[in-house]
Write a structure and sequence with these properties.
By secondary structure, the protein is of the alpha/beta class. It is built from eight helices and ten strands.
Length: 261
């Protein structure tokens, strides 16, 4: 999957290709799993159990909302997916690879399949928008001649071509989050994780960021978004995976934030 050079907008107006394998529910029509958690338990030396026997399959091209109260286990799932932590029991598979069995030198390569953004942006304050995005390629050893075209392309995707030379303090909150999204997207990830990406944004700006994530999903990228934003989840009617006390208590397609009926 390559990132299109079209400006940020709806997929229909941008002319970007949509995911060819998507089924009627938003799942991969061929059923190929990009992400799997198999009977995953995560416990800590303190005795806290963050996840309890969690099973989850995310097909390629899916858009999944991960919801639940604070402390339910959402952040733990994300840390396991980026191999910041390892499961105590069970398996975490990304693109068929068991993350616990990776050799140390293989970890950076598997992480390049994942893009991740947070609510607090995590931008380098003394680097321009262009340089923040380029940094994600520089640290992975991308040849210099490839960096500038890739950065320009992704800045057009997120609608920031005109702000490329500005510093983060000169940007609005929404523009900072778009910069973070561009940085996460520039290496063409297969899985895009958004951890409370609208948590620090006004409602109108939040919807702009959500529309951008939907466009990224329509390009064929699998999106997993952890959120407390009930309005967004209920309005979009995507797949909803709800966690409580470390367990999946609901996994529904076309669902609202809260259980209905």
């Amino acid at each position: 999957m390559g990132v299109s050079a079209a400006p940020a907008s709806t997929p229909e107006s941008s002319g970007r290709p949509t995911a060819a394998r998507r089924g009627p529910t938003g799942s991969s029509a061929d059923g190929r799993a990009l992400l799997e958690l198999q009977a995953v338990t995560k416990s800590y030396a303190t005795g806290k159990v963050a996840l309890r026997d969690v099973d989850l399959v995310v097909p390629e091209g899916d858009f999944v909302f991960l919801v639940g109260p604070s402390g339910a286990g959402k952040s733990t799932v994300i840390r396991l997916l980026i191999r910041e932590e390892l499961a105590t029991k069970g398996k975490v598979l990304l693109d068929g690879r068991d993350l616990a069995r990776l050799k140390r030198r293989e970890v950076p390569r598997i992480r390049r399949k994942i893009g991740i953004v947070f609510q607090d942006f995590k931008l380098l304050q003394t680097k321009t928008v262009r340089d923040n995005v380029a940094f994600a390629l520089e640290v992975t050893g991308t040849p210099r001649r490839q960096i500038a075209p890739a950065v320009d392309r992704v800045l057009r995707v997120v609608g920031l071509a005109g702000q490329a030379d500005q510093l983060p303090p000169e940007l609005s909150g929404g523009e900072q989050q778009r910069t973070a999204i561009a940085r996460a997207l520039v290496h063409d990830p297969r899985l895009f994780i958004a951890d409370e990406p609208t948590g620090n944004l006004d409602p109108s700006i939040s919807w702009e960021i959500i529309q951008l994530l939907l466009s990224i999903n329509e390009m064929g990228v699998t999106v997993l978004m952890a959120t407390h934003n009930a309005e967004v989840v209920t309005a979009l009617r995507k797949r909803v995976v709800a966690l409580e006390d470390g367990r999946i208590v609901r996994d529904e397609t076309g669902a609202a934030y809260h259980r209905e009926g």
